[in-house]
């Protein structure tokens, strides 16, 4: 980029990334939401996704460890509480475990992450390292996939409840909660990015950060599709559903 974009044009560029790169476009999601997967494949998705869910407060804590602005830390702290829980709110990680419980997975096994795909673990840890190592602006920009999250959550709630008899309304609590949390979070992050990305170089950095995050999410689905759909090659040590054992 050689010219400075207006904040409005920068937001437009960010949204264009979501329109072309967000993981709702991945074939695995079409199968998941359309009821085309069997129980074991849905279990594999939920088990692997747990790795990502449990890493979110870690990456947010990594960012907070170097924020010198107290007000910014106060704002970002809520993200950690949303996932780890606080007071009477058990948090998003616990709500995800309710989902894996409902799918018949052993909770201790899920939490151990022993059965997760190697590519899942690599992608998730790459995201944590990115947030830890890059600038505050890039780290915050990488969270802007939340711009596109509510639509995929609504699609997931409707599609999975409609198409899978083994999915109950109770286990979808994580996604319903994110319908209100994600828009709140992204309002702050987007405002910050539009204000602080005040040079062409900084604007390019935030666009690249969002592309990176989309790649992290896409890679996780690539791994799931390869292992559990086509060609169906599960790596040694990874979760093997009961119906293919």
CATH fold type: Heme Oxygenase, Chain A
How far is the first residue's CA from the last residue's CA? 52 Å
Give a short account of the largest sheet.
none
Spans with pLDDT under 50 lasting ≥5 residues?
none
What is the count of distinct domains? 1
Helix content: 55-70%
Number of strand elements: 0
Structural class: mainly alpha
* Tally of separate helices: 11
- Secondary-structure element series: HHHHHHHHHHH
Q: Taking all residues together, what is the mean pLDDT?
A: 94
CATH class: Mainly Alpha
Binned strand content: under 5%
Just name the CATH architecture.
Up-down Bundle
Specify the CATH homologous superfamily: Heme oxygenase-like
Shape: globular
The Rg value, from CA coordinates, equals 18 Å
Q: What does it look like?
A:
There is one protein chain. By secondary structure, the protein is mainly α. The chain has one domain: Heme oxygenase-like (Heme Oxygenase, Chain A), CATH 1.20.910. Helices cover 70% and strands 0% of the residues. It is built from eleven helices and no strands. Helix 3 runs antiparallel to helix 4 and helix 9 packs antiparallel against helix 10. The chain starts with 6 loop residues before the first helix and ends in a 17-residue tail after the last helix. The model has no long low-confidence stretch (mean pLDDT 94).
Give a short synopsis of this structure.
With 245 residues, the protein is an all-alpha fold. It has helices at 7-21, 27-33, 39-64, 70-84, 92-102, 107-112, 118-133, 136-142, 149-163, 173-196, 200-228.
